[in-house]
Amino acid sequence: MDGLPLALELAAARAKVLSLPELADALAAGRFDLLAGGPRAARSQHRTIRASVEWSYQLLEPEERGLLRALAVVAGGCDLSAVAALCPPPSTSVVALDLVDRLLAKSCLVAERQPTGTRYRILETIRQYAAERLAAHLDEWTIANARHAAHYLRLAEELNSRLRGAELPQVLGRMTAEHDNLRAAITWLTSEGADGMAALRLARALWRYCCLRGHYAEGRRWLRAALRLGQDAGSGAEPELMAAALDGAAALAHRACDYGEATALGQRALELYRGLRDRRGTALALTTLGSIAREQADYPRAIRLHSEALALFRRVDDGLGVGHSLQLLGFDSWLSGDLKTASGWSQRALRTLTAIGDRERIAHTLLDRGAEAFYLDDDGAARHLHAARRLFTELGVKQGLAWADDLLALVDLRRGDLLTALDRLTSSLRLHHQVGDRWRQASVLESLARVAASLGAARACGDLLGMAGAIRTAIGAPAPACERELLTQTTDWLRDAAGPTAGGWAGPPSLPVVARHVAELARLLGGR
Q1: How far, in Å, CA of 325 to CA of 307, rounded?
Q2: Which of 247, 271, 417, 451 sits in a 20 to 30 Å window from 494, CA-based?
Q3: Residues 6+ apart with CB under 8 A from 497
């Protein structure tokens, strides 16, 4: 109710006949119809919330009413630059600030101090009323949405250009604060606005942000809609723009373990970039295709493609691209089991990335160093992994956090600290599930099966291995080479404990079943 006294009073009156959950549902469905029935003796503006808001609205100056209607298209709040973009031209920040000040004084807006700056939010009751007034005038509604989308397209492209290096944490925070508005903008561009080029530009500017924040499914939807609209536009789509959007779509499909679609999209991007003689773009497409090959355990292809990308990044003097390629070559190598080669690549990557200051890639490289140390039986594994985890926590990169917990759990298992390992694996599985990374979910389930085997829990071990196997079959990706020794040990234990015909989980994975097994394992360990 935004703290509005009349709204609270009218809602409280309805609580006589509705439970609070029912009242909440009814308010969400239509607050103006529900919040009526004030005292007959009261003034008209005190009998219904609609009449009250209408009375307040009519007291505003025409330019104040116009801005209030335009702000109805804002999702969740905005900063002063967005307000200025929604004002009729020629508008300036000073004009926008004056109007905001007046609307704040009349209790139509709320100012909120946030780490990314001051943001302004229209009260929800007033926003719904303003949206009704805006929708009644099609031209004005179209102009407001178009201005909103144009502003957030400009902002997304500017932020995406800085989404690397030392600025990464601040830029990620700003994009996260604007997530709802970015969603609203691309929804408009791919539906009512039907602007294929603008939609492609915005989707291209957002895919890396979606990767970093774990919004794989949403980013894929945006790019699919934008690509479809852009392709419908025919030859109007710029080849470089189409190539970049295809590469972004391939990267997100890869993160979601849809390797068939990822490969098809990545190959189309590569062909376009090569046709344009765009060396950096070609290197980016090779990077994506190499990462797909790595998860399918085709390590020679992954290393070849990432080596080609490294050479191209060097030719165009892209330091971050060089550092990223070095890191990926280390990643490919330790997953394949070639640990000494991996260590060499990772050390070079860490030197390069530290000089640049890209904390996200530094975190990934520390993760690689920790994995290499673990598989080499080096005591430094935990130190590297904890350092990586701290960086991923600061950046809010869920996928990196999940990886760090996954690998730290292996260190705990080796030390015999099964309860800590169980906690870390549970956290890792939850995060991998949230972002939709089935490849790593399978590995975590296999590690959980290892905990079950250590405790003699054959049923849990069989179910967890069965679920992991179902995922691997569904996505077409075997266990990474470096993990197969421990997996074989677990499988052999289960066969010895339950016999050669031991059954396991049949069908798709079930998180409730996993949760029950984890709870049982915790009880066996004397934990919570």
Answers
A1: 7
A2: 417
A3: 453, 456, 458, 461
Q: Would you report the helix, strand and coil content of the chain in percent, each value rounded to 5? A: 75, 0, 20
Structure token digits, residue 215: 């919004």
Dist CA 255 CA 215 (whole Å): 10
**Residue 215 gets which letter from DSSP?**
-
CB neighbour class for 86 (10 Å; exposed up to 12, middle 13-18, buried from 19): buried
Residues 6 or more apart in contact with residue 461 via CB below 8 angstroms: 449, 452, 453, 490, 493, 494, 497
According to DSSP H, which parts of 276-318 are helical? 279-295, 299-315
**CA 476 – CA 438 distance, rounded (Å):** 11
3-state secondary structure 175-198: HHHCHHHHHHHHHHHHCCCCCHHH
Q: What gap in Å lies between CA 6 and CA 20, rounded to an integer?
A: 18
SS3 18: coil
**Torsion angle in degrees (nearest 10) through CA of 207, 210, 211, 216:** -100
pTM (predicted TM-score)? 0.87
Query: Distance between CA 310 and CA 328 in Å, rounded?
Result: 10
Structure tokens at 190: 């791919």
Residue type at 372?
A: E
266/212 Cα distance (integer angstroms): 19
* Mean pLDDT of successive 10-residue stretches along the chain, which has 528 residues: 64 73 70 54 51 78 92 93 90 88 90 90 86 91 95 97 86 94 95 84 96 94 91 69 96 96 97 96 98 97 98 96 98 96 97 93 97 92 97 93 97 95 97 95 97 94 95 96 95 84 74 94 84
Q: For tokens 């099609």, name the residue.
A: 138
Other CB atoms within 10 Å distance of the CB of residue 384: 24
User: 3-class SS at 503?
Assistant: coil
Beta bridge partners of 114: 117
Amino acid present at 302: A
With tokens 């939609």, the residue in question is 199
Residue 318's nearest CA partner among 280, 369, 355 is 280
CB 423 within 8 A of CB 525: no
d(CA 309, CA 311): 5
Please give the Cα distance from 429 to 98 (Å, whole number).
50
